[in-house]
């Protein structure tokens, strides 16, 4: 493949990954506590394969590398729902949930009780509290979570929702299902929270849709340019065989 073709191919690969990221952001506009992601692009130099008197001979070709995706950690808007099991963190902090792969972290505080009476996330993962994963008996009523995370029922205080923070939250990695993982150990914090509320997604729908349309058009343009290049090479090959 020519150097021009390599540049365009690298551009297509980077844009494809960015399209997937944008599409995921748009799909989660209504997901409580969702944190959008932004891609960072950088230049990747590859030694040219051309030779002779061509402009790029014996030089480096500048390719596109989409680098890494960064999590947008900005606070989402807090929306009051009136649901006593909903809770939103104001400022720093992450809820801890238990998964088959170990503890994971989320900003989604739209909690509920599963069929066994256990406090879980919307996706069914047990919420970690000061008493561990918490299960309520059938006789307990009026379950509430206060602004400091205290969980109370008709039978009294049952514990507190565990909230932690990290030395560098930017190192958190998306783990699917609105969860994050980290290679560093978090520290417990005393958070500021809003009970009966959820933190909405921090994705701005209008901005993401505009970016998605622009990127789609650019992707199609580069793909068409590559097709024309391929057609031109094929025509030249056929011409040479005549």
UniProtKB/TrEMBL annotation:
Pfam families named among the record's database cross-references: Flg_bb_rod, Flg_bbr_C, LlgE_F_G_D1
Ranges where the Flagellar hook protein FlgE/F/G-like D1 domain occurs: 88-152
Residue ranges of domain Flagellar basal body rod protein N-terminal in the record: 12-35
Record carries keyword RNA-binding: no
Localization, UniProt: Bacterial flagellum basal body
Keywords, sorted A to Z: Bacterial flagellum, Cell projection, Cilium, Flagellum
Keyword Glycoprotein included in the entry's annotation: no
Domain Flagellar basal-body/hook protein C-terminal: 195-231
NCBIfam families named among the record's database cross-references: FlgEFG_subfam, flgF
Protein family (similarity comment): Belongs to the flagella basal body rod proteins family.
Self-association and partners: The basal body constitutes a major portion of the flagellar organelle and consists of five rings (E,L,P,S, and M) mounted on a central rod. The rod consists of about 26 subunits of FlgG in the distal portion, and FlgB, FlgC and FlgF are thought to build up the proximal portion of the rod with about 6 subunits each.
Alphabetical list of PANTHER family matching this protein: FLAGELLAR BASAL-BODY ROD PROTEIN FLGG, FLAGELLAR PROTEIN
Protein known as: Flagellar basal-body rod protein FlgF
Organism: Bosea eneae
